[in-house]
Amino acid sequence: MGVLSDLRKRWFVTGLTLAVSLFFAAALLYSTMTYVDVMEARQGVELRGAVEGAEELDDGSLLVTFSVEVYNPSDQDLVVHSMSWTVRAENSSGAVVAYLPVTSAYNSSSEGVVFGSESARTVTYEAVVSDPAVLGPLSALAGYMSSQGDETTLASIHYSHDFRLVAYIGGFDHDYQYSKELYLNDLVRIERTYLDGEYS
Amino acid sequence: MRMRGEDWRRMGVMALISAPGVAFLFFDFLFPNLSSPSLEKNMLVVFLLAILFGMPSGYLTRRTDLAILTVILYVFLGYIVAIAAYSAPFTVYDFSIVFPGLYFMFFLNMTVIPLLLMVLGGFIGVIVGQLLAESMDREETSQNFSK
User: Fold this and answer.
1) pLDDT category, B83, cuts 50, 70, 90?
2) Structurally, how many domains does chain B consist of?
3) Across the interface, do B95 and A42 touch by the CB < 8 Å criterion?
4) What is the value of pTM for the model shown?
C-alpha cells in the first residue's frame, strides 16, 4: 500500500496530525517574525538631534533645557523603564576636576511612557535653577573664568548633559531571575545614552 | 533491517509532518518571552507534547524500528528548522549577533535537555501510537464480523 493511500485510509488521524503541524508551523513563523522585530529594535533604536541650552533669566536664576529625539524604526513599542537627565558643570580650575551639580530629572516605569513603533518622538526637559546653594558655585566658576580672561556668564558655562534611556521592547517578559535565563532579560532590554555630544 | 523505497518515503512524509511542532518547541524553549503561544519552559508539557508528536509515527508505521527511526529523523529535522529560525535575524536580515559566547554552542547548550526529552517522548509516543492502531484495527475487525 502506498504512503498516500495509507494516509487517506487513516484520514482522521492524518487530518489531526496535519492540523497540529500547521498550527505549530504558523506559531513558529509568527514567533520568528517577533524575534526579528526585537532584533531590529535592538539595532535600530537611536537617540538623535540633541539640543542643549542654558539661559540666565531676569531674576538671576538659570534656565537649563535639553531635548533629544528617540527614534524607533521597529514594529515593536518601547516601554520605558527609566529615563534620567543630569546636568553638571565641570570645574577644572583646580588640581582636581570637580563637578558642580546643576539639576536632574528622573522618570520611572510607573509613569507608563511608551515610544510607539515606527515613530520618532522628542523628549524635552526644562529646569529653572534658583537655589543659591547651586547658583553660588556656578557664579563663582563664571567669575573665576572671567578673571582668567575668558568672558563667561552663567549661561555660557559649559554644562555637561547626561541623558540615559532604559526601555523594554514590546512589554515582553523581562523578570527572569535564574542565571541561565538572564539572557532573556537582556534580549528585550535597550539602553541608550547621550553624554556631552556622544551617542551610545 | 531491510529498507524499501516506500519505507523511506513514509519516514520522510512523517518527518515533514512532525518537524514543525518539534522546531517550535525548541524555539520556544530558547525564547519563551518572545514566542507565542509559550510553554514557559514547562518540562512536563514539553514531555507530554513530545509523546503526542511521536504518536502519529507509531500509528501510521507498522514496523517499530522504522517508527523509532522516524522519531530520530523528525527530531533532527525539527532541530535544523529551529536553528534556522534562531539564525533568521542574522542570516536573512543581517542584524548583529547579540548572544554571548559561541553562537551555535549557545543554542545547543540551551536546548540539550528538551532534545533528549523529544527523543524519549517520541519513543514512548511511538509505542502508544502503535497500541492505538492495533486497538482500532481490532475494533474495526470485530465490527466487520458483527455485520
Assistant:
1) very high
2) 1
3) yes
4) 0.84
State yes or no: pLDDT of A109 exceeds 70: yes
**Which residues have C-beta within 8 Å of that of residue B55, sequence separation ≥ 6?**
B125, B126, B128, B129, B132
C-alpha cell at position A179: 542565571
Q: What ipTM goes with this model?
A: 0.90
Q: Domain range for residue B74?
A: 5-146
Q: Do B21 and A21 touch (CB under 8 A)?
A: yes
Q: How much is the pLDDT for B46?
A: 94
Would strands A98-108 and A198-199 be described as parallel, antiparallel, or unpaired?
unpaired
Cβ <8 Å between A17 and B18? yes
Task: Answer whether A20 touches B (CB < 8 Å).
Answer: yes
Chain B residues contacting A, CB < 8 Å? 6, 9-10, 13, 17-18, 20-21, 23-25, 27-28, 31-37, 41, 52, 56, 59-60, 81, 85, 88-90, 92-93, 95-96, 98-100, 110
In this prediction, residue B98 has a pLDDT band, given cuts at 50, 70 and 90, of: low
Q: What per-residue confidence (pLDDT) applies to A182?
A: 87
Long-range CB pairs of A89-94 (<8 Å, 24+ gap) are: A89/A138, A89/A141, A89/A157, A89/A158, A89/A159, A89/A160, A90/A158, A90/A160, A91/A137, A91/A141, A93/A141, A93/A144, A93/A145, A93/A148
